[in-house]
TrEMBL record:
<dbReference type="InterPro" id="IPR036688">
    <property type="entry name" value="MoeA_C_domain_IV_sf"/>
</dbReference>
<dbReference type="InterPro" id="IPR036135">
    <property type="entry name" value="MoeA_linker/N_sf"/>
</dbReference>
<keyword id="KW-0808">Transferase</keyword>
<comment type="function">
    <text>Catalyzes the insertion of molybdate into adenylated molybdopterin with the concomitant release of AMP.</text>
</comment>
<keyword id="KW-0460">Magnesium</keyword>
<feature type="domain" description="MoaB/Mog">
    <location>
        <begin position="180"/>
        <end position="324"/>
    </location>
</feature>
<dbReference type="InterPro" id="IPR038987">
    <property type="entry name" value="MoeA-like"/>
</dbReference>
<dbReference type="Pfam" id="PF03454">
    <property type="entry name" value="MoeA_C"/>
</dbReference>
<protein>
    <recommendedName>
        <fullName>Molybdopterin molybdenumtransferase</fullName>
        <ecNumber>2.10.1.1</ecNumber>
    </recommendedName>
</protein>
<dbReference type="Pfam" id="PF03453">
    <property type="entry name" value="MoeA_N"/>
</dbReference>
<keyword id="KW-0501">Molybdenum cofactor biosynthesis</keyword>
<dbReference type="InterPro" id="IPR005110">
    <property type="entry name" value="MoeA_linker/N"/>
</dbReference>
<dbReference type="Pfam" id="PF00994">
    <property type="entry name" value="MoCF_biosynth"/>
</dbReference>
<keyword id="KW-0479">Metal-binding</keyword>
<feature type="compositionally biased region" description="Basic and acidic residues">
    <location>
        <begin position="133"/>
        <end position="143"/>
    </location>
</feature>
<dbReference type="InterPro" id="IPR001453">
    <property type="entry name" value="MoaB/Mog_dom"/>
</dbReference>
<dbReference type="GO" id="GO:0005829">
    <property type="term" value="C:cytosol"/>
</dbReference>
Amino acid sequence: MSDACAENGLRSVEAAKQMLIDSIDPITATEIVPLSQACGRVLAEPVLSALDLPPCDNSAMDGYALCGESDSYTLIGKSLAGHPFSGTLEPGQATRITTGAAVPGGADRVQMQENCTLDGDQLTMSRPARPGENIRRRGEDVHTGQSLVPVGSKIKVPHIALLAAAGVVEVTVLRKLKAALLSIGDELKPIGTPASELGDGDVYDSNRIALQAALEQLDVEILDLGCYPDQPESIREAFIHARNNADFVLTSGGVSVGEADYTKTVLQELGEIGFWKLAIKPGKPFAFGRLPNANGETLFFGLPGNPVSAIVTLYQLVVPALEKLRGTSEQYRQPPLQVRARLLNNIRKNPGRTDYQRGFTYRDGDGIQVVKTTGIQGSHILSGFAEANCFVVLPREGSDCDTGDWVTVEPFLAPLK
Ligand code: AMP
Ligand code: MG
């Protein structure tokens, strides 16, 4: 049987992602956080503006506020940011005005200072100002009572700026998710173990800390359960502890079909398997399931142990699932940005699985988006992953690609926030 045939029966990445999204119910518990801690969180309650933005008509320029159209104006005062002019202009009168300062009563336009000449109190200009020119109107950004940020948004830096501009000091967000994180494998040694103490075939447990770093970008609280040997009893114990203390369990290792891979058996015994094995490369042995507990259930994501596979499946499958679980609304759960880029090298690929090769993409001297794969594409090759700034996404049924072909790349654009 060819590889392609062996992989025909595997669930596609898209189908797996859809099944995850469809079967996950978002959490509903909320908390109030100060605006200073709201970035990256998911908004749970509407925030309505208590004022118009801008709060008053104000100047977009440093220059002169003018009343009516005239060949020259008489300067009668000034309006500075924070120090408005208290009077009202009559036709032919002007005040000095700075950016952001309130437009004085009677003024209907602002001329930028670069176009003005002042002689005593007489102001002339190289070209007339149009009515309304350089005036930022009260409420043209936001009206009083308007919703500032839609519920279900992931709060980003511009949201913070907008909320603060409206005087908001705290917001109601969905609570943080809690993950139980563990690694499985007899060969794994905690980082910090001196290299001289590693036995033959031992490796550092690099996945746990990498996954932790990724989850923290989603504001997930981590219950770090550490590292477990390839023994069903200890894995069972870990899962029982994990299911009672977290919204989801994230494991790596022990999920393939080796004789020491017990994740599947224990998951089956304690709960249920949604799927296991996908048409994705790297990362075929990816498991999703559920572990019932006293309050309902805990989701289970079992990542493959190979370090590149673990991170690829986390990005492609677990992150979209967690976005749903943490309450991000559909509009803000768009698939990652993909762009086309021209290949700078050949790529070998067998049909059968969607391949997420690691690549480096950039705009070349002619302005063309190009991409090269970063070194050997083995699922254990972390140096090439670390060098990469994108995935080169090769469709499931595709085969080899040649230099000059156009391929799809998915940039690592702050993917988690
Ligand atoms: P497994 O999924 O258990 O078959 O492991 C596949 C490969 O990933 C093996 O080479 C493991 O040594 C390696 N591996 C498993 N877990 C980890 C981990 N936590 N950190 C680094 N490498 C791992
Ligand atoms: Mg193993």
